[in-house]
Amino acid sequence: MIDKPRLEAKCSTWNITLTGTQLDQLDAFAEILVDYNQKVNLTAITDPEGIEDKHFLDSLLFASQPEVAGRMVDVGAGAGFPGIVTKIYKPELELTLMEPTGKRVEFLKYACAQLGLTGVEFAKERAEEAARKAWREQFDLASARAVAALPMLAEYCLPLVKVGGNFLAMKGSSGEEELAAARGAIKKLGGEYKETRTLHLPGGDTRTLILCKKISQTPTAYPRNGGKIAKSPLK
Ligand SMILES: C[S@@+](CC[C@H](N)C(=O)[O-])C[C@H]1O[C@@H](n2cnc3c(N)ncnc32)[C@H](O)[C@@H]1O
């Protein structure tokens, strides 16, 4: 379904090397996604080159960052981006796909089973509720793509990260603006902003990766409930 040499060539400009097995798994994942998408709406991007650039390459750029290791949670995993692609690229990763929508969780389970991926946990949870349960401060890394603006996303993700771990947000061209609005929230939640990495994807999209380290425990008052987070994002 995908054009493997084309994806390989694009990856090589970023020093990302894929094995034959990984290319086969990505190809199979594209087929599973497009096929399942006919029954359940998962993505608007279904053409091979769109999947290669906007889903696979974007997720691989995230996956190749040095902080992507150990136990990771993908908050709002949706159709598996960046989580499933990251697991294909770094099979040793312990991955939790956190997603509140039942039909998407069913898809994630189905896709991982079909791809033979092991070491994946499925959490049918909203992040702010999961952080009040067994998942609080359990992860080396939390990430999310296309879930919420950074002040809200910080309150979803940082409480899930253990002290010493990282929150690596996948933002678009508004990353710097969102960061300016989120600085207070990051601090209140026990995080420390480290750096921004700006990457230019094929087709002109900008990917901004915002890295925050967890330097102290999140106060027990956070995360607040979902309504409060949405109504009055932390400042
Ligand atoms: C636009 S989709 C993005 C999915 C995927 N990350 C991607 O980039 O293709 C946003 C996803 O976030 C999930 N979501 C929204 N609020 C959430 C929350 N509070 N905790 C966890 N997931 C959430 C939604 O159910 C949805 O699947």
Automatic annotation (TrEMBL):
Key words, A-Z: Cytoplasm, Methyltransferase, rRNA processing, S-adenosyl-L-methionine, Transferase
One of the record's GO molecular function terms: methyltransferase activity
Highest taxon listed in the record's lineage: Bacteria
Localization of this protein: Cytoplasm
GO BP annotation list: methylation
Gene3D superfamilies: Vaccinia Virus protein VP39
Keyword Methyltransferase belongs to the record: yes
UniProt KW rRNA processing keyword: yes
Residues at which S-adenosyl-L-methionine binds: G76, F81, E99, P100, T101, A127, E128, R145
One of the Pfam families matching this protein, by short name: GidB
UniProt enzyme class: transferase
EC number: 2.1.1.-
Purpose: Specifically methylates the N7 position of a guanine in 16S rRNA.
Family: Belongs to the methyltransferase superfamily. RNA methyltransferase RsmG family.
Protein name (record): Ribosomal RNA small subunit methyltransferase G
Species in which this protein is naturally found: Faecalibacterium faecis
Organism ancestry: Bacteria, Bacillati, Bacillota, Clostridia, Eubacteriales
